[in-house]
Amino acid sequence: MISKAYQRGYGAEGPVIDREWLTELKDGLILLSGGRMGDVGRSLLRGNSALVDECVAFYEEHFSDRYYLELIRTGRQDEETYLHAAVELAETRGLPVVATNDVRFINSEDFDAHEIRVAIHDGFTLDDPKRPRNYSPQQYMRSEDEMCELFSDIPEALENSVEIAKRCNVTVRLGEYFLPQFPTGDMTTEDFLVKKSKEGLEERLEFLFPDEAVRKEKRPPYDERLDIELQVINQMGFPGYFLIVMEFIQWSKDNGVPVGPGRGSGAGSLVAYALKITDLDPLEFDLLFERFLNPERVSMPDFDVDFCMEKRDQVIEHVADMYGRDAVSQIITFGTMAAKAVIRDVGRVLGHPYGFVDRISKLVPPDPGMTLAKAFEAEPQLPEIYEADEEVKALIDMARKLEGVTRNAGKHAGGVVIAPTKITDFAPLYCDEAGQHPVTQFDKNDVEYAGLVKFDFLGLRTLTIINWALEMINARREKNGEPPLDIAAIPLDDKKSFDMLQRSETTAVFQLESRGMKDLIKRLQPDCFEDMIALVALFRPGPLQSGMVDNFIDRKHGREEISYPDVQWQHESLKPVLEPTYGIILYQEQVMQIAQVLSGYTLGGADMLRRAMGKKKPEEMAKQRSVFEEGARKNGIDGELAIKIFDLVEKFAGYGFNKSHSAAYALVSYQTLWLKAHYPAEFMAAVMTADMDNTEKVVGLVDECWRMGLKILPPDINSGLYHFHVNDDGEIVYGIGAIKGVGEGPIEAIIEARNKDGYFRELFDLCARTDTKKLNRRVLEKLIMSGAFDRLGPHRAALDELAGRRAESRRSACQSGKRLGRRICLAYWRKSRNKLNNPMPAASRGRNRWCWTGNVKRWGFT
């Protein structure tokens, strides 16, 4: 019923449950009247006895002794008047009463914080006389003694609160997971997964090893790994999950929606690779399945899937169509008051001047996850002004109370749940005020407790860039009679790409374009894909601050001896595990493999060890250290050496990164690097299109294009499109959509007219062939001053003046001829046109101030 109320849309007081709905689901319900704000309460206060009788008769008929008149004493207007009337009604009609307190905050001293929170939400200042004052200081969680004292004159109201509690008995199922049934014909879900996985692996092996003899030699470890994974997946009861993910990813690929090669620990699954959920061979890069799905720790698998930003919603729509719209929903997320923002919000509500509040909030560092407590440690000025200024102290004290409190509800970036039946069988829904865009009222953690399985449909801008670049590349290849480029099939050892990488020419390359990353690349000089995987893992605060990065670089370049893992404490059995990272423990998977190799841990047990090291619980670590040493001794390894290596592993485990995620994102980085090296014009055009709403970024990318020796043509009314594109001569044509103030509507009108009747001859020709409602004077001015008409001849200043005259002429002509019909209107307009065929006005002699060279910012009109 709550879901239905939200889906219908909000009334004046928010979502409302209709009384008639109660009759449909009345079994098992206990109703409280809502006090003075319920239908009976309002009718009592208005003296409408007829409506009171009608309401009570309805509730008595359908709920009998399960309907209670609610009594509240919080000191608000009309409460006592209502209470006496309700008690009298209860005596007259034999209705039970119950005492409640309409609790809005926990402790009595939280009232001021509550009022400020409400004022933040409603947009009022605290001293605004128009601010609604709907709450009282008494709406806190009263103790039993307080409630007994408050209702000493109506003891049965308190007795009934206990009676209601006794009557409530709800069984909540936790720890179970519910998935929709995936269609498998007459096969079981388990057998169908095995069939699809083996078929998929065969296709993968044929691609990886085209030579049959080589394939026969290489396949045993793949078959063995596949069988192990399938056994675990089926035993844990997750075959349906893999099949559901497989289906919507395959649908995406079949319908032109770009999908990422993988994300997170899921890239370590060979079954996922065989089903084409991921595109990275886990055996080639030593990725572990147990890091994704641990048979010794039952938890749902969790594939995070990246889709093209533009087309992600198409995939969610497909899933809703396949499993039923009432069975699919996105997930709610709750925005909370963060440190810097809560200071600003509280300061505004308290009525402080903007400058005063701004000065304080700017002292809070902008780091992610920053709290007021951390800010006081990081910024010495904060505690100083806190102690010195009473107003600052009061503001920050209140901000501390509200920090972390929910401020608003929104939609999770990518979380989607798919239920076997209606979503409302498992979770209530929340909608916006119009009843649109439903999301679960449970957040991403609570939906899992309720038994729903979360699927992450994430949008990745880089996939959109790659897709746009491939569209331009394949259009050119088609003209040249070449087959389309398959970005998933490019070699991972391309010399041209790595030469560019070693020069740190990585502007616009995914994950590798920041200044800090470029400095790291110059020092590391990566020359293979494994080095790129390491780059993603190394460029994080932990490794950078620990000295690990310096050791890694020195070992790679022979300036430091490679040891496995330490010169004093190493073992030859660890060389295969640590050789790809020059003996440095860089990945979480290496922590697991060390435990397996030295001490005989299963990979599932090793994953538990890795988690324990991350949590740093002394008791658990002491236990694990003992198990590690004992296992090593059984393998003939000295106990002291084992403990020393354990301590080294524990130290580096905190810095360890998920190699599966690092490898998957390194692949996306490599794909963008390869495109920049081999198809620079198309790639840079796609990148500028993705950033065309940010003029400053476009300016920087234009500089990069010039550095690369690419030619960029200015905006042009006859060759430009909404996006940046590459012409037949390999030149980048500036996207008209990047000109601020020129939206999609005018550009669509221009392109439609151009496609219909050919190139525009001059400004008047453009005005004559397009709708002035879409292409008004303001838009024309933007186009002229950006240089979009430069190839048509006159100087921009002259065109700007002429644009105003001609736009006005056309508007006047059409208004005068409106009653005479289209033909007469056009004839009158042509007559007006002749009056404008004069020499260019004097303004045309003016210098073209906004020339192309050196004034790229003007294209965006910053």
From TrEMBL:
Positions of the DNA polymerase helix-hairpin-helix motif domain: 709-799
Gene Ontology biological-process annotations: DNA replication
Enzyme Commission number(s) of this protein: 2.7.7.7
Span of domain Bacterial DNA polymerase III alpha subunit NTPase: 192-459
SUPFAM superfamilies: PHP domain-like
GO cellular component: cytoplasm
Keyword terms of this UniProt record: Cytoplasm, DNA replication, DNA-directed DNA polymerase, Nucleotidyltransferase, Transferase
Listed name of the protein: DNA polymerase III subunit alpha
Organism: Citrobacter koseri
Phylogenetic classification of the source organism: Bacteria, Pseudomonadati, Pseudomonadota, Gammaproteobacteria, Enterobacterales
